[in-house]
Amino acid sequence: WDETHFGKMGSYYINRTFFFDVHPPLGKMLIGLAGYLSGYDGTFPFQKPGDRYEHHNYVGMRGFCAFLGSCLVPFAYLTVLELSKSLPAGLLTAFILIFDTGCITLSQYILLDPILMFFLMGAVLGMVKCNTCADRPFSISWWFWLSLTGVNLAGAMGVKFVGLFVVLLVGLNTIYDLWDLLGNLSLSLVMFGKHLLARVLCLIVLPLVLYTAMFAVHFAVLNKSGPGDGFFSSAFQSQLIGNNLHNVSVPE
């Protein structure tokens, strides 16, 4: 059923048709982009679950979701390996996920779930890797993992609002980390300030900039009248090509 829902939204992006949805736009934009790059023309109606795709090239969109779903296995392996320092524990985690029916099922259709899980687990991996670089702060690897954590936080929030939970997890880890640094008497207040500023830049400013940029792309791409027009003001509707109010002067 959900494939009918999100596949249709991928078509909306390809056709540049404006729509409204409860979820942020990133996941649907990526599905639309995968379809566009793989030759899907956005003409399949997605009217009801079970309709045959016939000649429509849907494989690219499903393949994209399946690829992100397959990335969860190495993400889980690396995270557990980093936390436990145990190769058997990492391998066991990877094998459990490889043979998990739910994960396989969710990853083989055009859904937001594999995209969301990709960013969620990417954020956790980045956080864990950054913690292991704590003995060499401000090194290239430290900055890389801290920035990557911020990028994945924006991605998780940009797919579904349930991504807030991983933001909370990373936030609590950061508070604990900063509290630990504040209690280190050998660390000057200037150096602590640098640590604080680095985390503000990478874990607050960077995700907010990326999250805002997603909506900028969303509104730039969807410039034609569609089923989402009625949710917005007359002034906004006047900017949509094909709308009855297009280019009409609307009083304040």
From TrEMBL:
Pfam families in UniProt: PMT
User: What UniProt keywords apply to this chain's record, in alphabetical order?
Assistant: Glycosyltransferase, Membrane, Transferase, Transmembrane, Transmembrane helix
Recorded GO molecular functions are: mannosyltransferase activity
Compartment(s) of residence: Endomembrane system
Q: Does the keyword Transmembrane helix apply?
A: yes
Domain ArnT-like N-terminal: where?
1-223
Q: Which GO terms describe its biological process?
A: protein O-linked glycosylation
Pathway assigned in UniProt: Protein modification; protein glycosylation
Gene Ontology annotations for the cellular component aspect, listed alphabetically: endomembrane system; membrane
Chief localisation class: membrane
InterPro entries attached to this UniProt entry: ArnT-like_N, PMT-like
Q: How does it sit in the membrane?
A: Multi-pass membrane protein
Q: Which family, according to UniProt? A: Belongs to the glycosyltransferase 39 family.
- The identity of this protein, by name, is Protein O-mannosyl-transferase 2
Query: What species was this sequence derived from?
Result: Nothoprocta pentlandii
